[in-house]
Amino acid sequence: MFQQKSVAVVIPAYNEADAIGAVVSDLLRLENSNGLPLVDDIVVCDNGSTDNTAAIARDAGARVVCEERPGYGAACQAAITALANPDIVVFVDGDHSVCAEEIPLLLVPLENSDLVIGSRVLGRCEKGALTPPQRFGNWLASALIRLFWKAPVTDLGPFRAINCQALQYLNMEDMAFGWTVEMQVKAAIQGFEVVEVPVTTRKRIGKSKISGTLKGVIGAARGILQTIFSLWWRQRRSNLQARTVSH
Length: 247
What we know:
Blueprint: E1 7-13, H1 20-28, E2 41-46, H2 53-60, E3 63-66, H3 72-81, E4 88-91, H4 103-107, E5 115-119, H5 132-149, E6 160-163, H6 164-170, H7 179-189, E7 194-198, H8 214-246
Helix pairs in contact: 1-2, 5-8, 7-8
């Protein structure tokens, strides 16, 4: 049974006015075994939206911060900075693709682990929820992580939970599409206990800003692969320098 700790949810959002209200409302309805709110804090980072995302999220009950620098990582970092030092941070997309009621599936394993990834590959995925380019890119990136770091990764899913101390230790740097893969690779390098759990993925509300455009697909693929190879090269160079010093 999950021992109740303070839980904060981070939601990076860009033009998600059609979905963000439902996302926040679903989170606020969650209760723990004592009938108290499961989520203590919800921070939506409005990443330069041109619609009413921020106002709707605020009216639904979330705290809202703004980050004008574009990028998934930049939005996540801004939201994290606004947190009041929770025990656990859960990352949720603002497009209603995540089933909020499955958050406990991520929280329970954190009793004995550092990072829990909601795997769309292991779980149920609604028809049309993931495009062919998304599926291929996810498979390729996961395969590279398994090859370079021997980590049993099946998915780079954005639905994830991490102990706050572990998150701080990772010293996240990527400001764009490489955020999720950076977290998993750095966790593997540090020897953190990482667990994957199957989750349900719904078809998002509204058009995806990444998979919905050719520019978004190419940008995401470039960012993810660049992050993987950059971290691999950084670790390899560090190992070579360590061997040189030891000799």
